[in-house]
User: Which sequence fits this backbone?
């Protein structure tokens, strides 16, 4: 292994020999740091070197990478190096994996340093029917993304992997082009590639703090780093400090809620017959993966209940370190793992290795620009797949910095989806116990998160509990998912791919919304008050729709970037000429807030997050007017209170902001109630609702109702890669409004480009039996045309329904949709479907306006 171009002591010793915490090796005495760099990358693991490489690749020629000790000395040096493109139903994750594998394959030709990539193949075993169903669904989606995956039999597994027990294997999934890489070599090759493109890499220099200033627009931004060798000014800083990233982020006032956990593999003595060309084998049911190592085997593990490490903080001098294995805790899991390859029960163990790896609250990486600090980027929290996604992560961060927005959907990995409270020690300690095991759990739909529950409660939570709500984690809130009738446990029950035990209760809530009246708690929605002389002007500038035309009116709008793609999808209610109420979904909370704050910073417009101050209760359904009329003196008639009106009304002792709007496709109202008065208002609604047959409805009903009406959900069916026109939201763009808006030119250019060949389309499966969840491949005339970004069951439409982004060689019009034969693939089954550009339920929105 070579380390050309790396200053202050190259890591020549084989890292695998340096397994004790050795203490840090400082930079040599003559090391001098530059006073300035355009970007400083902190951390020289696989992620930091990849970010530096890609910044240079994309044209940034003044990049400095600072590594506290030696490259790879954190987690990277001991990774198992599995390369798997199979396994995810996220397009983002699959693209990150594919790009990374291809990069490792071509890097040697560019840098002269091999990455150690061996495309020996990967086999995933399916032992139980639930896993088989999952893998068939994943395989169909992954094939659509370009992954070469083949379903093979137990006999074929035995031929490829003779030492594995295969008598209980239902089927397996074989990806010949996957395999393994040497993580240290891949890092060194990236470092060499970065160096060749002008990046300066300095080892032995820790970053100990950050320089911050208020920029020209009044937004706080990072301006450099502190080190023992002096300050380095920088326009951008990228925190790639692995498991140290959280405590390092604290020095910049940035919350990065990741936590290290114990992570194990075992190395056996050499075993006769084991061949280095064998594929990597994974059997999640045995908590294990298996590959050749030194003529023997490596058995890696993802145990279902795991152990966080050093919640109080990672030691600064932990380097090339390993942890003492907890044999008592791991023993039972290890037995299960070894049983898949019985010879390992008889052969000697060379090493039982435990090293720390970072995990995040939702098992997704933490990437992107910190909401707290402009130009401060983070790429950390890799949840044990940092090697196999590292290339793609580096490319994405570099694009984000250089182009302003990456070319993949980052809504799920963006740092701003997370909240500061998730950095609390207790939260991290509790949640991390569950995280690592979820890697190998069967990914059934509706799997509830079990740990760190009850972190955020609606003001009416106790009342909903009395109503027998089954709660689920909604960005940390307890969200009522569905309601159990008397005598039925409000529990999710057994997980499966079929109809859950609560299917009929869900259906009843759905029908009650269409035919009667329901109450839905939506307190988790993000709410902001925007006030000031310039509030109207500022909000008009960032909104594609006209939001400040008339006080007492709510407007549905998107916020676009200069490229005309979506940054947010929300409502703006004009309360007065200098007061606005902005409501976004829970997942977009901090993204919308940051976007707003940064664009309004230099004006007389002030954003206050009032989420905690208001309880949001939605009263929806044709009976909703009658219910509100029964509790208020306000005139709720259609004439006095038309669709999109927003008024303060009295309910009991409270003054409630009542907005006539719906996300479910019926006549309906959203009530924003001061938190301390919420219980009183709720009680009145429930009492008045009794004679009207008021039902409580949960988030499952929300999903099925909105999907029938094809209402979009940002981060689920629309994202940062979609133009507002492709997303079918052109109706909410006021192209001719005075003063224009951010993204207007891009929208005009897209329009001028002619009819769209990429559009979001609603699909309804005509057979009422199958269920759709996400990522099912959609075909036109037998040719794949897209996949379902999200889906639910349309109880009124009579079948599963979803939204897919469809690509075509010709303009996508309803005629084009009608002239094709549409199908949706669910696992190995193919079902006919109807495709529509207009909502299949109430296309002319008569019910909303009544
Ligand atoms: C047992 C085990 C097996 C694994 N197997 C696989 C696998 O098969 N496939 C896979 O994809 N992933 C695997 N992983 C996960 C993978 O190793 C990690 O996701 C990846 O290495 C994380 O890389 P990183 O660059 O984020 O972190 P690190 O490698 O920890 O790099 C962070 C760097 O930042 C430096 N640093 C910290 N603080 C500072 C500071 N203040 N100033 C300057 N530098 C600083 C550290 O010294 C370190 O070098 C495994 C992990 C473990 C523990």
Assistant:
């Amino acid at each position: 292994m070579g380390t050309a171009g790396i200053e202050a002591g190259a890591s020549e010793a084989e890292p695998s020999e340096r397994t004790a915490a050795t203490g840090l090796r400082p930079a040599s005495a003559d090391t001098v740091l530059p006073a300035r760099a355009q970007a400083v990358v902190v951390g020289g693991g696989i992620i930091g070197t990849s970010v530096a490489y890609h910044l240079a690749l994309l044209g940034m020629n003044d990049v400095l990478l600072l590594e506290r000790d030696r490259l790879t000395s954190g987690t990277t040096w001991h990774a198992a190096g599995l390369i798997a493109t199979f396994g995810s139903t996220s397009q983002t994750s699959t693209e990150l994996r594919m790009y990374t594998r291809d990069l490792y394959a071509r890097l040697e030709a560019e840098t002269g340093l091999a990455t150690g990539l061996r495309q020996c193949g990967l086999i995933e075993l399916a032992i139980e029917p639930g896993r088989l169903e999952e893998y068939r669904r994943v395989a169909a989606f992954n094939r659509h993304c370009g992954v070469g995956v083949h379903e093979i039999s137990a006999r074929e597994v035995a031929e490829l992997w003779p030492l594995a027990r295969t008598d209980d294997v239902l089927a397996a999934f074989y990806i010949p082009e996957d395999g393994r890489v040497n993580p240290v070599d891949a890092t060194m090759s990236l470092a060499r590639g970065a160096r060749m493109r002008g990046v300066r890499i300095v080892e032995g220099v820790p970053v100990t703090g950050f320089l911050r200033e208020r920029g020209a627009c009044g937004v706080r931004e990072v301006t450099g780093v502190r080190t023992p060798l002096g300050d380095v000014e920088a326009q951008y800083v990228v925190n790639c400090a692995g498991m140290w990233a959280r405590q390092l982020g604290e020095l910049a006032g940035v919350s990065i809620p990741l936590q290290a956990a114990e992570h194990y593999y075992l190395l056996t003595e050499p075993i006769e017959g084991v061949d280095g060309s064998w594929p990597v084998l994974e059997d999640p049911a045995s908590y294990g993966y298996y590959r050749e190592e030194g003529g023997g085997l490596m058995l890696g593990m993802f145990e279902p209940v795991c152990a966080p490490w050093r919640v109080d903080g990672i030691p600064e001098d932990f380097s090339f370190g390993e942890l003492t294995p907890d044999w008592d805790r791991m023993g039972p899991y290890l037995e299960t793992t070894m049983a898949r390859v019985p010879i390992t029960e008889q052969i000697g163990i060379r090493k039982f290795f435990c090293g720390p790896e970072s995990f995040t609250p939702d098992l997704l990486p933490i990437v992107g620009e910190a909401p707290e600090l402009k130009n401060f980027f983070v790429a950390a929290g890799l949840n044990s797949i940092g090697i196999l996604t590292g290339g793609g992560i580096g490319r994405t961060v570099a694009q984000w910095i250089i182009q302003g927005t990456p070319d993949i959907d980052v809504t799920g990995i963006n740092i701003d989806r997370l909240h500061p409270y998730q950095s609390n020690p207790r939260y991290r300690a509790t949640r991390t116990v569950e995280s690592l095991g979820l890697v190998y759990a069967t990914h059934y739909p509706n799997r509830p998160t079990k740990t760190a529950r009850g972190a955020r409660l609606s003001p009416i939570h106790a009342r909903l509990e009395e109503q027998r709500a089954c709660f689920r984690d909604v960005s940390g809130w307890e969200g009522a998912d569905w309601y159990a009738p008397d005598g039925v446990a409000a529990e999710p029950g057994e997980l499966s791919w079929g109809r859950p035990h609560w299917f009929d209760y869900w259906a009843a809530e759905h029908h009650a919304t269409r035919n009667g009246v329901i109450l839905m708690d939506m307190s988790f929605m993000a709410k902001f008050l925007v006030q000031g002389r310039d509030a109207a002007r500022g909000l008009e500038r960032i909104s594609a729709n006209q939001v400040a035309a008339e006080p007492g009116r709510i407007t549905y709008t998107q916020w676009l970037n200069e490229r005309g793609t979506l940054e947010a999808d929300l409502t703006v209610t004009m309360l007065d000429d200098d007061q606005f109420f902005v409501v976004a979904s829970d997942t977009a909370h901090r993204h919308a807030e940051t976007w707003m704050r940064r664009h309004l910073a230099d004006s007389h417009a002030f954003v206050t997050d009032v989420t905690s101050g208001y309880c949001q209760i939605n009263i929806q359904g044709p009976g909703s007017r009658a219910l509100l009329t029964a509790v208020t003196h306000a005139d709720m008639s259609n004439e006095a209170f038309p669709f999109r009106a927003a008024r303060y009304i009295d309910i009991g002792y409270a003054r409630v902001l009542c907005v006539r709007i719906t996300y479910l496709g019926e006549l309906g109202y959203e009530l924003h109630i001061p938190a301390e008065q919420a219980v009183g208002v709720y009680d009145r609604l429930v009492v008045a609702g009794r004679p009207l047959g008021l039902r409580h409805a949960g988030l499952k009903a929300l999903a099925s109702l909105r999907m029938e009406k094809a209402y979009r959900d940002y981060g689920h069916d629309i994202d940062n890669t979609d133009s507002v026109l492709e997303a079918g939201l052109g109706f909410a763009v006021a192209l001719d409004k005075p003063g224009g808006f951010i993204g207007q030119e891009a929208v005009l250019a897209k329009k001028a480009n002619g009819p769209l060949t990429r559009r979001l389309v609603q699909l309804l499966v005509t057979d009422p039996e199958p269920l759709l969840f996400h990522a099912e491949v959609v075909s036109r005339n037998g040719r794949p045309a897209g996949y379902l970004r999200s889906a639910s069951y349309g109880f009124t439409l009579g079948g599963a329904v979803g939204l897919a982004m469809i690509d075509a060689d010709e303009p996508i019009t309803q005629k084009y949709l009608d002239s094709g034969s549409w199908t949706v693939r669910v696992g190995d089954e193919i079902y006919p479907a109807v495709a529509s550009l207009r909502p299949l339920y109430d296309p002319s929105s008569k019910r909303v306006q009544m």
Notes: DSSP finds 19 helices and 38 strands in the chain. The CA atoms of residues 162 and 382 lie 32 Å apart.
